[in-house]
Specification:
258 residues, alpha/beta, Rossmann fold, seven-stranded mixed β-sheet, 12 helices, 9 strands
Length: 258
């Protein structure tokens, strides 16, 4: 479908209340392939390709987290979907929080999966700039080859060798401009820990025990009766590959209790 003059490609499976799955940086809707079959038995599950990722090309003007959130809001309006529960992985979590801040009327609840409400540190911002320069210098494939192994728990890189290769293939499909736009969006994103702390919606926070990018203490910045915190044992930043059964069960338990 076309949203804001650009094509947004998505998977749409199952029936019932709608879940929308938002992948992370240099990912695509393919990230959720091991989880969708379990969820779609009871829910309508929509997984999108973010602008510049997967099969969603164009949208070169999207360079801020708020703009990604607007794209998703317009996408839901195009499909005439009034309420969703949103699950955001990493970059997708930053977008989910921005969506919760600006468009909470569309949400039954939301989840951050290996994500955080905190902004980038000065060091992380420098890393984003260096990553964009690497993409310009060496190309997207070389950048992805260096990135993907860090997404998995150290002990899982060899154990889940095929998954590592699968994630690389997904990453190769990201346009260089799409990747650089996302890097800029993450670099300049604001602190949204207050959004997480103040929401009355049911929230699910999921952290990987061995996440090298976003450790649990950065995910669990808020607590309350409406906030469920879960650590996925043995997982890094990619529980949808490293522990899909546990991730799926965690999501279903949250949905039943929300």
């Amino acid at each position: 479908m076309k949203t804001n003059h650009s094509k947004i490609v998505y998977k749409d499976e199952g029936q019932g209340e709608t879940l929308i799955l938002i992948h992370g940086f240099c990912g695509s809707s393919e990230y959720w392939n091991k989880v969708i079959p379990k969820l779609s038995k009871s829910y309508r599950v929509i997984a999108i390709d973010l602008p510049g990722h997967g099969e969603s090309k164009g949208h070169d003007s999207v360079q801020e987290i708020d703009q990604y959130a607007l794209v998703i809001k317009d996408f839901l309006e195009e499909l005439k979907i009034e309420k969703v529960t949103m699950f955001g992985h990493s970059l997708g979590g930053y977008i989910t929080l921005a969506f919760a801040e600006s468009y909470s009327k569309y949400l039954n609840g939301f989840s951050l999966i290996h994500s955080t409400g905190l902004p980038d540190s000065s060091e992380a911002k420098e890393g984003r700039t260096a990553s964009a320069e690497k993409i310009d210098k060496d190309g997207i494939d070389s950048f992805i080859d260096g990135l993907v192994p860090k997404l998995f728990a150290p002990d899982n890189v060899e154990t889940y060798k095929q998954s590592v290769e699968d994630v690389k293939k997904v990453g190769y499909g990201t346009t260089p401009q799409g990747a650089k736009n996302a890097l800029n969006a993450m670099k300049v994103r604001k602190d949204r820990t207050e959004v997480l702390a103040n929401t009355k919606l049911p929230v699910l926070l999921i952290a990987g025990e061995s996440d090298q990018l976003i450790p649990a203490d950065k995910t669990f910045t808020a607590s309350g009766e409406n906030i469920k915190q879960v650590v996925v044992k043995g997982a890094g930043h990619m529980s949808m590959y490293e522990a899909p059964e546990e991730l799926g069960n965690t999501i279903l338990t949250y949905l039943k209790q929300a």
